[in-house]
């Protein structure tokens, strides 16, 4: 009995290790091709071709860009705090990768007589975990800006920290309204409830809109990219960075965009649920493994739609002034989130 339990633990450990490697690899691959996709979307909206030299249709351009960052000279300013200067981009990348640990990518695969969950950690406080990790992400910006010993980098880091802290409040309040309906902090439970009833965007449209706007601010995406305002701050908090340290900061933004899209799809759009299909009934007809693959495809289709929306907004809306950004967060989004939370609470009490 003891040996059987020990073997099962090792199998579970191996299963999670492989899943972690797959998710990290997919996140980095998606982040690479988000850069290509963004340049193609920008080119389409500006009536030009975009990358078209490296490979057919420029499909190898992300590999060329990555190689360029690796090959560039690495410069560390003499007046910088060297340890923190190295820690900043590493922390930004680490927190970006950690967020995906609680996202369920599909139901499960049935292989070798075992049900293999497509979720690294199905914890019952999944949403709290996401907020905790996202809150740590601001340290990557602050440490990088401060350690550079450059006034423009420090100013950009302070801007970024103030922005992220401000918009986290409205995002958290919008999630509280969702939790009143779901009664659970587990992302898998939230997806299963949407599979059984309806997508939560139908009953929380205002909460979803607030969460979406705050996701733009959390990812430092236009029109909320005040911490990277090239025309104002001469590149922003990563001004002094070069080579792959700069690449880590840039990649972290795209990984955050990918994971934010996955979280929004999970919380409000049914996650891996296949629209207009009963997944359990479909599994009885074609088998669990094909359904699990279709669920992954369904989730990634929703993620790609959100990523395209991120890119579309960047090349459509101009950047806010800093006072406009803070006014939107404190005077508009937080009151709206409070109203949405109170209204949701009243409806839940009335129904109960």
Automatic annotation (TrEMBL):
<keyword id="KW-0520">NAD</keyword>
<protein>
    <recommendedName>
        <fullName>NADH-quinone oxidoreductase subunit H</fullName>
        <ecNumber>7.1.1.-</ecNumber>
    </recommendedName>
</protein>
<keyword id="KW-1133">Transmembrane helix</keyword>
<dbReference type="GO" id="GO:0005886">
    <property type="term" value="C:plasma membrane"/>
</dbReference>
<dbReference type="GO" id="GO:0009060">
    <property type="term" value="P:aerobic respiration"/>
</dbReference>
<comment type="similarity">
    <text>Belongs to the complex I subunit 1 family.</text>
</comment>
<keyword id="KW-0472">Membrane</keyword>
<keyword id="KW-0874">Quinone</keyword>
<dbReference type="GO" id="GO:0016655">
    <property type="term" value="F:oxidoreductase activity, acting on NAD(P)H, quinone or similar compound as acceptor"/>
</dbReference>
<feature type="transmembrane region" description="Helical">
    <location>
        <begin position="328"/>
        <end position="350"/>
    </location>
</feature>
<feature type="transmembrane region" description="Helical">
    <location>
        <begin position="291"/>
        <end position="316"/>
    </location>
</feature>
<dbReference type="GO" id="GO:0003954">
    <property type="term" value="F:NADH dehydrogenase activity"/>
</dbReference>
<dbReference type="InterPro" id="IPR018086">
    <property type="entry name" value="NADH_UbQ_OxRdtase_su1_CS"/>
</dbReference>
<feature type="transmembrane region" description="Helical">
    <location>
        <begin position="197"/>
        <end position="217"/>
    </location>
</feature>
<feature type="transmembrane region" description="Helical">
    <location>
        <begin position="248"/>
        <end position="271"/>
    </location>
</feature>
<keyword id="KW-1278">Translocase</keyword>
<keyword id="KW-1003">Cell membrane</keyword>
<dbReference type="InterPro" id="IPR001694">
    <property type="entry name" value="NADH_UbQ_OxRdtase_su1/FPO"/>
</dbReference>
<feature type="transmembrane region" description="Helical">
    <location>
        <begin position="83"/>
        <end position="105"/>
    </location>
</feature>
<feature type="transmembrane region" description="Helical">
    <location>
        <begin position="169"/>
        <end position="191"/>
    </location>
</feature>
<feature type="transmembrane region" description="Helical">
    <location>
        <begin position="12"/>
        <end position="33"/>
    </location>
</feature>
<keyword id="KW-0830">Ubiquinone</keyword>
<comment type="subunit">
    <text>NDH-1 is composed of 14 different subunits. Subunits NuoA, H, J, K, L, M, N constitute the membrane sector of the complex.</text>
</comment>
<keyword id="KW-0812">Transmembrane</keyword>
<comment type="function">
    <text>NDH-1 shuttles electrons from NADH, via FMN and iron-sulfur (Fe-S) centers, to quinones in the respiratory chain. The immediate electron acceptor for the enzyme in this species is believed to be ubiquinone. Couples the redox reaction to proton translocation (for every two electrons transferred, four hydrogen ions are translocated across the cytoplasmic membrane), and thus conserves the redox energy in a proton gradient. This subunit may bind ubiquinone.</text>
</comment>
<dbReference type="GO" id="GO:0048038">
    <property type="term" value="F:quinone binding"/>
</dbReference>
<dbReference type="Pfam" id="PF00146">
    <property type="entry name" value="NADHdh"/>
</dbReference>
<feature type="transmembrane region" description="Helical">
    <location>
        <begin position="125"/>
        <end position="148"/>
    </location>
</feature>
């Amino acid at each position: 009995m003891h040996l059987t339990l020990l073997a099962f633990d090792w199998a579970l450990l191996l299963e999670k290790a492989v899943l972690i490697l797959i998710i990290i690899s997919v996140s980095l691959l998606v982040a690479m091709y988000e850069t290509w996709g963004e340049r193609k979307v920008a080119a389409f909206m500006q009536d030009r071709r975009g990358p078209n030299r490296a490979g057919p249709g420029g499909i190898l351009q992300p590999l060329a860009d990555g190689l360029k960052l690796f090959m560039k000279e690495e410069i560390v300013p003499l007046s910088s705090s060297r340890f923190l200067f190295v820690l900043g981009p590493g922390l930004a990348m680490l927190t970006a990768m950690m967020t995906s640990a609680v996202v369920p990518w599909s139901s499960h695969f049935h292989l070798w007589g075992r049900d293999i969950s497509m979720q690294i950690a199905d914890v019952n406080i999944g949403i709290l975990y996401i907020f905790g990790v996202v809150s740590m992400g601001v340290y990557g910006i602050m440490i990088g800006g401060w350690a550079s010993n450059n006034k423009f980098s420090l100013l950009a880091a302070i801007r970024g920290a103030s922005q992220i802290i401000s918009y986290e409040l409205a995002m958290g309040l919008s999630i509280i309204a969702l939790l009143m309906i779901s009664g659970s902090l587990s992302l898998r439970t939230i997806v299963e409830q949407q599979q059984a009833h309806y997508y939560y965007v139908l009953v929380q449209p205002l909460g979803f809109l607030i969460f979406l706007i705050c996701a733009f601010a959390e990812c430092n995406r236009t029109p909320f990219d005040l911490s990277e305002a090239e025309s104002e701050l001469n590149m922003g908090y990563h001004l002094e960075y070069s080579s792959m340290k700069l690449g880590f900061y840039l990649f972290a933004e795209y990984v955050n965009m990918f994971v934010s899209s996955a979280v929004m799809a999970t919380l409000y759009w049914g996650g891996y649920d296949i629209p207009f299909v009963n997944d359990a009934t479909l599994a009885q007809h074609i088998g669990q493994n094909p359904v699990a693959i279709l669920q992954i495809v369904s989730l990634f289709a929703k993620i790609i739609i959100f990523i395209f929306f991120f890119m579309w907004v960047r090349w459509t809306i101009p950047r806010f002034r800093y006072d406009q950004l803070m006014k939107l967060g404190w005077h508009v989004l937080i009151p709206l989130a409070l109203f949405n939370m109170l209204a949701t609470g009243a409806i839940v009490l009335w129904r109960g």
